[in-house]
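Re: zinc ion structure - here you go.
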Amino acid sequence: MATIRATCTVCGDVELGTADVRVRVDPTSHQGTYSFVCPRCDTLVVKPAQPRTIDLLLASGVEYDVGTAPMELVERRPSGAPFGERDIHAFSSLLDDDGRLWEAFEAADSRR
Ligand SMILES: [Zn+2]
């Protein structure tokens, strides 16, 4: 059985067997996802996979399903800093002032 190295979103690099990994392939784009349950923390990890990664996983004997990947995994990620506590406080203070809240919405709309 081949050893597959993957990265858990919680604990980092882990080693898996082919039976621990599952591939889901979109038959039209040949892209998809692979998933596994982390052997250290039991987190279900699902990651997007390019055709080359899918080919390597299938060649090593990983089982697969055919179907489309969830849109969250293939859509473009927004750029910019992650939403933080400072943003929550700023938004919370806007809720106390309808005028400033409206101005903030208009400013955000004009940036699109
Ligand atoms: Zn883990």
